[in-house]
Structures are given as C-alpha cells and as structure tokens.
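Late entry, zinc ion complex.
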Amino acid sequence: MELRIAERWFERRRIDSAITLLWEPHVDPLIRCNIWHLRGRDFDLMIDTGLGIASLAEAARDLLDKPVKAVATHTHYDHIGGHHEFDTCLVHPLEAEALRHAEEANFASLYKTDIPAAIVASIEASGYPLPDVLVTAVPRRGYDLRQYGLRGARGSVSTIDEGDRIDLGDRSFEVLHLPGHSPGSIGLWDRQNRVLFSGDAIYDGPLLDNLPGADKIDYIATLTRLGDLPVEVVHAGHDPSFGRVRLHEIVRKYLDLWQAA
Ligand SMILES: [Zn+2]
Ligand SMILES: [Zn+2]
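Prediction complete; structure with ligand written out below:
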C-alpha cells in the first residue's frame, strides 16, 4: 500500500504559558500518545515522546531552549519512541530496563499482524478496532514501515518512584506510582495547581487492563486512589484532557464493570 507523505509529522497545541501538547496525527488512535512539553524555570520536561517515527527533538527544537528531561510515564512503545534523542531520561525502576533496552521491545510494530493475535483480540474487545497498518502516512519519501523499531536510551536513565519530587524551580511535581496498566506506570502530580499528568493510568477512552504486564487488581487500587485526588485537570497519555467530574465518571465506570464481573 502506498501511503502519502505527511507534510509534518507532529501537531501541537499550546495549552498555557508552560504546557504544550504534541501528537502524531497520522497514527492510529490506539498508539497516538499525548506528548507533553512542560517549560520550567530551571529545566523542562518532555512527558512521553511518541513512536519515534520522526524526530521529536527536531520537531520541538524551538521549544527546547533549556535542559530537558524526558519522562517515561511507562514504556509501551507509543510513549518512548523518542527517548533515545534526549540526554536525560526518567522512568520508574520497574520499567527502567525496558527503556534502556527499548530495541528489544516485543511487537513494537506498525503492522497489526506483528501483534500477537490474543493481544489484538483483547485490544479490539476493549473498543479499539485496529486497521492492518497503524499509520495513514509516512514521514518522508522512502520511509520503510517494516524498518520501524525502538532504540534504547542513549542518555542517562534515572529512576523515579512514589514520593519522589521533580522540582522545576517554579513548579514542583510529586511522583505517583500508578501500576495497573503497566507495572511501572507513573503520574506526575502538581499539588499546588491540582494538575495531574497521568500517562495511561487514566485517560478518557477505553482503559486497557489486559496487555502483558497489566494487573487488574493494581488497576483498581490505582483508579480508586486517583478518584480521591483533588485534581482540577488531568493531562493524560491519550485523548483530550478532562476535569474532576469526568475523572470520577471514568473511575466509577471501571470499578462498576469490575464489580459486575
Ligand atoms: Zn500504555
Ligand atoms: Zn498509551
């Protein structure tokens, strides 16, 4: 199949003076992650980096005028494709090896047929019908979708865990360990502004609790915990951001589903 060449690979939207959202519009919604650039006084954060199909560092060059730490909310391949472009990476200890050796990731592919059938079935049952090819364009002429793969982090990989603090100078985050979707899923909680960057621990779409490494019991505990957090805004790993009312709806829906099972 001949795919068209994208005019640009990343789209972006300025959320406020500090936060910019970037995303990959030509990618299937299942693996179209939200990439959050956060400007700090002393350094910036890049929260997740997308698939790595095109260079994020290049696309975001105008934003990257000070040191930046690339956070991995977890290491599913749609979130860590660009981490190898950054000198400093932060990840939960349980997924640090997966980030260091991302090139060994299983089924990091743009083809549905490369994903084990049982996983495809579970993803589709959750509400994500998958096309045969997970992109609708290529980033440049001659790009070979078959060559797609992750690269291991080249820079330093430091671990962050529950209770750690990331202080940007003008804004400070607590690290929340939020397992369930994956063992080392983390969120960054800005208590003062009541803003949560949640990764895939919670987002406004069908929650995936059946992937390898996922744990439903952990997921229940994580969502229960998030339901108690006094958040105003959740900037998630996928889908549009949402507020406290929607957060409670998503949590309630998941817990009800589980209780009915
Ligand atoms: Zn994920
Ligand atoms: Zn994801």
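Residues 74, 76, 181, 200 surround zinc ion (ligand 1) (CB under 6 Å). Will revisit in the morning.
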